[in-house]
Amino acid sequence: xxxxxxxxxxxxxxxxxxxxxxxxxxxxxxxxxxxxxxxxxxxxxxxxxxxxxxxxxxxxxxxxxxxxxxxxxxxxxxxxxxxxxxxxxxxxxxxxxxxxxxxxxxxxxxxxxxxxxxxxxxxxxxxxxxxxxxxxxxxxxxxxxxxxxxxxxxxxxxxxxxxxxxxxxxxxxxxxxxxxxxxxxxxxxxxxxxxxxxxxxxxxxxxxxxxxxxxxxxxxxxxxxxxxxxxxxxxxxxxxxxxxxxxxxxxxxxxxxxxxxxxxxxxxxxxxxxxxxxxxxxxxxxxxxxxxxxxxxxxxxxxxxx
Amino acid sequence: xxxxxxxxxxxxxxxxxxxxxxxxxxxxxxxxxxxxxxxxxxxxxxxxxxxxxxxxxxxxxxxxxxxxxxxxxxxxxxxxxxxxxxxxxxxxxxxxxxxxxxxxxxxxxxxxxxxxxxxxxxxxxxxxxxxxxxxxxxxxxxxxxxxxxxxxxxxxxxxxxxxxxxxxxxxxxxxxxxxxxxxxxxxxxxxxxxxxxxxxxxxxxxxxxxxxxxxxxxxxxxxxxxxxxxxxxxxxxxxxxxxxxxxxxxxxxxxxxxxxxxxxxxxxxxxxxxxxxxxxxxxxxxxxxxxxxxxxxxxxxxxxxx
Lengths: 306, 306
Description:
Two copies of one chain form a homodimer.
Chain A: E1 5-11, H1 15-27, E2 30-36, H2 40-49, E3 54-55, H3 59-63, E4 68-71, H4 78-85, E5 94-97, H5 103-109, E6 118-119, E7 122-124, E8 145-148, H6 156-168, E9 172-175, H7 178-205, H8 211-216, H9 222-228, H10 233-242, H11 244-267, H12 270-289
Parallel strand pairs in A: 1-2, 1-4, 2-3, 4-5, 5-6, 8-9
Antiparallel strand pairs in A: 7-8
């Protein structure tokens, strides 16, 4: 494939940026990829494992001359990074990001984008519970969705080029407005993560059930929650602080439903429980048919056979 | 290995019974395994796939002469099945079960156990989201825990023999009293399942986020919940109706914690969120070190690389 961009700068070198680099290299999608991380330790790791064609010691150096700059830092840090790099952006360049919320990122980054630079926010719906520069891999985005969230006045050409990059990295691409994005993600990601963190915290708190029992007997269902609750704490703190409104709305609905089921348990209403549990099976089938998860039992882990 | 029992009867032919049959055959742990299911269709499927050495059309025929009878029916059905089979049990036989709750099973089954027959309740902590006779496989119990819950007066010899069977099927075995079992499982299994069912139900209800969006974008975290929420509705209805007390207690704790985190989100208390999310990472590490889950990202599904 011919290069989509001549030079790409990845700012922040965690799971997503490192996976982007390996995916860009796999597809030969850019002439050069520069990288910058605030921590010297991270930059050193990146150099050691060959992450990025050139790891820069300053933000300025990394973004200078880049046709595309992608902010891969926690959502809460994006505004400050955008402000710091703004004077060094090349005219005609595109700034994008990979943040899990979009309204707050647009509010924080948008005002710093100079005249003549394009701003096309994005969010790849992909990740694992691992974080850091060594956790990335080229296939992370294959058959996952990447959502582009153009802002008012986003240049159609800049949007199309970013779409080509994401498609080149293996993703399916869709466009969406920021408000809808934040609500959809509150349902499919943010609230499930908060609930998983909460359940794991509860288990950790219990004194009569020792840690070791919680761990030993985790395969009964709980261990699925612990994977989600092992995700990066900084990233998730920022997600909840910046997608407050939609998360609180979905949490309110969740609590309502939970109380209704709790009441059914208390009153012994087996029919209500059975009907509820039957309805939720259909969604799973839909996800498997859509190719978004495996049908292998237990996600195929531990050699479970179909 | 020499046979642990000469004849084993499996009553109810779903995921657990079918996995037990394949694991017993793999280890050559019994001379003959008979099977019975209430539904003629299930018996037919079992015969077609070679599940059990002999599939019987009546409960009486299946349990006659058996040294071990294992109840693998939903918890809510166990009392009636125990009553029906009691007159046909061989003196000196052992009756066990695989139910996910233990106090309720002991209350329901215990009174029907005839003089001279041993009763050793058990619960293998293993399963997948799939159900039915065709979903079983021989390795389901490998390195999983199986909990024996002897009742007052359980014969030590009968307990030791059942332990040998579970170990022969690949499981690690521990003994526990019924009350503690039900609390531990409320934490590691029952409450997580209820929460997953609830979250999936909420997503299903939302009108602004269409089904197709929930499904398309499920890889962001939600799809893990849908696997759990695809489990057998009858089994789970019975679990919540029969482990009411412990489940409601853990649910109460969960709600308390959830409200505290919700308040932290509302008031913008990033420190509290960060601390909470950091603490929960440690449990995940413990589970991986204990060999109860894989460290491969995303459980290793979809070819994710470490």
